[in-house]
Amino acid sequence: xxELKIAVSGINAVDxxxxxxxxxxxxxxxxxxxxxxxxxxxxxxxxxxxxDWVVDKTFIxxxxxxxxxxxxxxxxxxxxxxxxxxxxxxxxxxLPLYTKYTKEIExxxxxxFVPTENQYKLRAKDKLVQVAEKINIDIPKTAxxxxxxxxxxAVDKIGLxxxxxxxxxxAERAYTxxxxxxxxxxxxxxxxxxxILQEVVKGEELNVVGVGDGxxxxxxxxxxxxxxITSLGKIWTGVTIKNxxxxxxxxxxxxxxxxxxxxxxxxxxxxxxIYLIEINPxxxxxxxxxxxxxxxxxxxxxxxxxxxxxxxxxxxEAGKLYxxxxxxxxxxxxxxxxxxxxxxx
Amino acid sequence: MAKKYEKPVILKVQTGMMNKFGSSxxxxxxxxxxxxxxxxxxxxxxxxxxxxxxxxxxxxxxxxAYYNSFSTRYPNVAFGWSYKTNYLPAVCSIxxxxxxxxxxxxxxxxxxxxxxxxxxxxxxxxxPYKNLSALEKAVKEGAMINIDHFDEIxxxxxxxxxxxxxxxVGMRVNMDTGIYPQWSRFGLNLDSGQAMDAVKRMxxxxxxxxxxxxxxxxxxxxEPNAYAxxxxxxxxxxxxxxxxxxxxxxxxDIGGGFPSKSKLKGTYQExxxxxxxxxxxxxxxxxxxxxxxxxxxxxxxxxETGRAIVxxxxxxxxxxxxxxxxxxxxxxxxxxxxxxxxxxxxxxxxNIEIDRQVDGTNEPAIINxxxxxxxxxxxxxxxxxxxxxxxxxxxxxxxxxxxTQWMQFIEFRPNVVLIGTNKEVDIIREAxxxxxxxxxxxxxxxxxxxxxxx
Amino acid sequence: MNRLSKLAVNxxxxxxxxxxGDSYTVNPTGLFIINSLxxxxxxxxxxxxxxxxxxxxxxxxxxxxxxxxxxxxxxxxY
Lengths: 345, 454, 78
Ligand SMILES: Cc1ncc(COP(=O)(O)O)c(C=O)c1O
Description:
heterotrimer, A: alpha/beta, Rossmann fold, Dna Ligase, domain 1, six-stranded antiparallel beta sheet, C: alpha+beta, Arc Repressor Mutant, subunit A, three-stranded antiparallel beta sheet, 4 helices, 4 strands, 53% helix, globular, binds pyridoxal-5'-phosphate
């Protein structure tokens, strides 16, 4: 098979890790694909830059806030100077660009497999009620509020404690109405309106990662429970599970919305109720878990994009364990220097 | 061959900022040598610096894009040009030529529209302060008056008595559309029943006849759906009024508020990514109209779009007059235009283009204006290449709200020019000089200085 | 001056300060000035040599150099 040059972003494998390194590793391990991995980084300190056994070549990108032209220009440069066939964007801040300018990126001769603009909007927390209903999963009592007055009324209905969330980012727990109002002001000042109030549901966190093919079919999925998380809330140990309610909701999600690309559903299970908390329109940081269980989601997504054969919606075993660990690598300053002075290595 | 000189620069590699494109010449640096085919150099040589430049082509194109997007979706639509956004006569005239009527919010603006030649019946008269004589004039001249509060109802009833006629009026309403802050200080509230009380009052006196509803939900509204909510609530209310009081609501004026491609401070993504297209607004609005209007009922839809039409047609050219190194290591540039000319810089981060290719490393810099005041900062932090004194920056978009809200404080206001569709350049507002300031000032005889006597 | 002599400076303008662990980047003119300072040259002499080495040097080149030196100073390198 011809060599494919695939770029992945989010190679910041730090204490709040991006998904990139795990995805790069998954692609490298697929027996059918012959890939060179391009790491796309925003900072010279992203560890993936130094992991030359997974990342073959690195380019620094200008921050997503520099907009479309800067991105397209840089991708064109990468394509010309090194070669670039495919990009997997893995960071929340990048997705607005990739979903809005999919055509422009494809016009450079670079494939992407991301949700459409309209699908992308579904992740907004004020849309959660409508999504949950359609895919047949519960959600905690939720209210969308735009003013402290509305907040007070909503808190009366939902009760305390309550989660105060931005439409896309940030979530804080409040134990009193006063505290909720103060979170309301802080979050709205930073992330805008509306603000979402949500009942605090207790239970264990379950997640599912999946990839939709854009036509209503599931390329593959894996359900897990987080057994141990770090102080930043990131998974450190996990186990595969088969919660039918959650897996069915994931299938419905892909079928109802013809979801295209990777996604993660974050859920909380309380006895026989399961609540949808969040939709992430990208691979989660632990996506390698699926690869390790025999379902190579990144590789199958690439195969789908290029019309190569792969096995759809494979089964997996419940009870497989995921264990993260730390590891060090020592290198001299050359790579760092190159990234700082040339923006690539 | 010798290498080309660039200003020497050293940058510390800082944790969390190790992105080469921070300092790269290619990505944050934009060069603009002309506006609509007229060289920046030539403009400044002829008209001085700073200089506001408007593009007639851009203005007409924007208006047409908006008009077409709406008129192809709803058959009965008109735009009222929001004077407060920019009331330079040249700008207003271009938009009036394109077919916009006038939307004014004070007697001054009303008189301005009349002086440009707009008849009273082509003026929408909004605003919280319309004094009795202004109201009387507007009624006589047939303007569309949108009532802002109860006191205005009483005043208009007085006018009706005086002129011995029933007056057709519109009423501004406000409501919750999911947009925050809610502009609840203007008009009468729909949700609380206040608006209905006002209609009852008009009906009971029988001097005013309600024939229109007006609302303006805010400015730089990024959510097209807010307009759908606004329209749904207005039409529901309209039908309620029609049924209860046998009136006919002939127009719905949904105000302005569409964003221009400007970068609101505190937002992360570029305007290109953030800002919905005209068509998304038009689609949301027309869908809501057809969903809520009864079959066959096609009342007039007015839009008072301001910034979205004029903002991107305006540029400000400013010159670097000095630079220095601040104690914290940042570079500071002093420009000849400051917040005196750029009122909107308090909320928006402009696109900055440079009039020439500048080589060398970008470094964190701020841009100060000429006012001897600490708040006079038009750019609080951006990576800029090392620029010589005399380098010109082109800031945009600045066409909305600046040439109406600018202030005369220790500096004169500069020339404003318009580049026509055939590249002809005309002054549309002359630079001020000392006489403009002293003309209205009076010095009592006894205070006159006589420096010749000892 | 003493600080300058200890810096590790490569030809691409990457500078590492072994005393503090800080890194810096300089552009070609900045690199030229740092190397000249390390050789113990004075600003006037540097200005003269800089204008021979580079094309299109402006008249106020000494102002540029002293601004650069004051920047080194804010970084505690001079
Ligand atoms: C009544 C009214 N109409 C129209 C406008 C124009 O708004 P925009 O420039 O946001 O389109 C304003 C601005 O504040 C307004 O108050």
